[in-house]
């Protein structure tokens, strides 16, 4: 595809001009943060950090073509992270693209709750499982920030696990320097701990289970165009009430966690305590040991699984994740 740069950019040749034009066009189509997006796209096209843009002057014709190509895709609401190829999460950068859910800042709080629990455990007991691991954001963060930890990143999607493995591999040296290891497991989060499955050997031994599962009800349409059109459906939708995968995660966590072990699970802001049995805390509180869980965990049949169930809010003051302890 050829691009007439002089026509599309109006002959603008300085960084300031290109930034102004990009921000104006992004704002016109309703991009929520047009200034930030424009700066990141232009910096990426020029091959410089965003904070070095002010040091640039003229923009070459080749660079202007690259800016226009990126801008055209962003104007059609391709996620910024897909265009840049990565996203920051806590202390790490992760490769992302089509097929894997882009980790959000809200999930950093979920990781924080999990790592605080994990780092309080003695070395040798720092075992965690990340269910629905996606890009590996939480799993890798735990391994990097909690030294001498053993993390198991479980992902079911054939497309997403490519990114999980890629990111774990790219952070291999950093993980090793911390004495940590992340094992990627290609399996269903709802059954990965069943007899004969990959994590059955960890039953009753895990200190922390953490998850950011799909939780959007099937009939709900996400407001953001980027989410609606570009995020993988398997990472978004969780059945009629949005809680099918959540129930599976609760079941697997019940098998894996040691007595008193911590579950940390993200949910939508309408799935907190006030939602009752349509929310994650309510579902956790109502969960009792069935025949299978009783057999796998030595829990009395019909006994409650979770105690100290509570909800946590995000930086916007909205319910964002549930924590609970294994009875």
Strand-helix topology:
Blueprint: H1 5-8, H2 15-28, H3 34-46, H4 61-75, H5 80-84, E1 86-89, E2 92-95, H6 106-119, E3 127-131, H7 137-145, E4 150-155, H8 160-170, H9 172-177, E5 181-186, E6 206-211, H10 225-230, H11 244-256, E7 257-266, H12 280-286, H13 291-297, E8 306-313, E9 319-326
Parallel strand pairs: 3-4, 3-6, 4-5, 6-7
Antiparallel strand pairs: 1-2, 7-9, 8-9
How would you concisely characterize the structure shown here?
The protein is of the alpha/beta class and 327 residues long. It has 13 helices and nine strands.
Offer a few descriptive terms.
Rossmann fold; Helicase, Ruva Protein, domain 3; alpha/beta; seven-stranded mixed β-sheet; two-stranded antiparallel sheet; 327 residues; elongated
Overview of this protein structure:
With 327 residues, this protein is an alpha/beta fold. The protein has 2 domains: 5-76, Helicase, Ruva Protein, domain 3; 86-326, 3-Layer(aba) Sandwich (Rossmann fold), CATH 3.40.50. 38% of the residues lie in helices and 17% in strands. The chain has helices spanning 5-8, 15-28, 34-46, 61-75, 80-84, 106-119, 137-145, 160-170, 172-177, 225-230, 244-256, 280-286, 291-297; strands at residues 86-89, 92-95, 127-131, 150-155, 181-186, 206-211, 257-266, 306-313, 319-326. The model is unreliable at 1-10 (pLDDT under 50).
